[in-house]
Amino acid sequence: MERLLVLARHGQSEWNLKKLFTGWRDPELTDLGVSEARTAGRWLGQQGHRFDVAFTSNLRRAQRTCALILEEMGQSDVETIRAEALNERDYGDLSGLNKDDARERWGDAQVHQWRRSYDVPPPGGESLKDTAARVLPYYIQTILPRVMAGERVLVAAHGNSLRALVMVLDGLTTKTIASLEIATGIPLVYQLKADTTVESKSVLERDIDHDA
């Protein structure tokens, strides 16, 4: 039984390019983001992977990334399930603000804490802990059973919703999660054991875009 779980952060969005806090706002992919998604699909196809089901968020950048990956693999007809639980973390009052402007206003240390800490939310928004509180139950109740049944599963979502999953899969702590970056458009390929823990993990390497 394969027990394949592939996680993919969406390709670069228009607001990633402009260095804006995005959260639940809904910009489209840039041309580079489209290319990143297509490259991810080609790479997965070249590795011989196929999918039985795909999960994505309620936001367009993740949905289009998911569709482009499957299109490149010749699998556009794969069942695709959208769920708000997989949305990016809500950046609250920071949504739509330029990251550099935010640093000037609140200071580097405060903005870094909002972006990378586990349990400190931005004003009016969600911390990673809050995000995990909706992502992980959905994973355990809806996604994981399909992986454990032998279905090959793609999850196309966001930097922080995927950080919440990777924290559990990779056994990271609330401190080590702060340094974890998930690059746009790069699949994380997991094979799970019968006890739901990770048997193997592989990552397509390229330069990482650090704008979350």
TrEMBL record:
<dbReference type="GO" id="GO:0006096">
    <property type="term" value="P:glycolytic process"/>
</dbReference>
<keyword id="KW-0324">Glycolysis</keyword>
<comment type="function">
    <text>Catalyzes the interconversion of 2-phosphoglycerate and 3-phosphoglycerate.</text>
</comment>
<keyword id="KW-0413">Isomerase</keyword>
<dbReference type="InterPro" id="IPR013078">
    <property type="entry name" value="His_Pase_superF_clade-1"/>
</dbReference>
<feature type="binding site">
    <location>
        <begin position="115"/>
        <end position="116"/>
    </location>
    <ligand>
        <name>substrate</name>
    </ligand>
</feature>
<feature type="active site" description="Proton donor/acceptor">
    <location>
        <position position="88"/>
    </location>
</feature>
<feature type="binding site">
    <location>
        <begin position="22"/>
        <end position="23"/>
    </location>
    <ligand>
        <name>substrate</name>
    </ligand>
</feature>
<protein>
    <recommendedName>
        <fullName>2,3-bisphosphoglycerate-dependent phosphoglycerate mutase</fullName>
        <ecNumber>5.4.2.11</ecNumber>
    </recommendedName>
</protein>
<dbReference type="InterPro" id="IPR029033">
    <property type="entry name" value="His_PPase_superfam"/>
</dbReference>
<dbReference type="Pfam" id="PF00300">
    <property type="entry name" value="His_Phos_1"/>
</dbReference>
<feature type="binding site">
    <location>
        <position position="61"/>
    </location>
    <ligand>
        <name>substrate</name>
    </ligand>
</feature>
<dbReference type="InterPro" id="IPR005952">
    <property type="entry name" value="Phosphogly_mut1"/>
</dbReference>
<comment type="pathway">
    <text>Carbohydrate degradation; glycolysis; pyruvate from D-glyceraldehyde 3-phosphate: step 3/5.</text>
</comment>
<dbReference type="InterPro" id="IPR001345">
    <property type="entry name" value="PG/BPGM_mutase_AS"/>
</dbReference>
<feature type="binding site">
    <location>
        <begin position="159"/>
        <end position="160"/>
    </location>
    <ligand>
        <name>substrate</name>
    </ligand>
</feature>
<feature type="binding site">
    <location>
        <begin position="88"/>
        <end position="91"/>
    </location>
    <ligand>
        <name>substrate</name>
    </ligand>
</feature>
<keyword id="KW-0312">Gluconeogenesis</keyword>
<feature type="binding site">
    <location>
        <position position="99"/>
    </location>
    <ligand>
        <name>substrate</name>
    </ligand>
</feature>
<feature type="active site" description="Tele-phosphohistidine intermediate">
    <location>
        <position position="10"/>
    </location>
</feature>
<dbReference type="GO" id="GO:0004619">
    <property type="term" value="F:phosphoglycerate mutase activity"/>
</dbReference>
<comment type="similarity">
    <text>Belongs to the phosphoglycerate mutase family. BPG-dependent PGAM subfamily.</text>
</comment>
<comment type="subunit">
    <text>Homodimer.</text>
</comment>
<feature type="site" description="Transition state stabilizer">
    <location>
        <position position="158"/>
    </location>
</feature>
<dbReference type="GO" id="GO:0006094">
    <property type="term" value="P:gluconeogenesis"/>
</dbReference>
<feature type="binding site">
    <location>
        <begin position="9"/>
        <end position="16"/>
    </location>
    <ligand>
        <name>substrate</name>
    </ligand>
</feature>
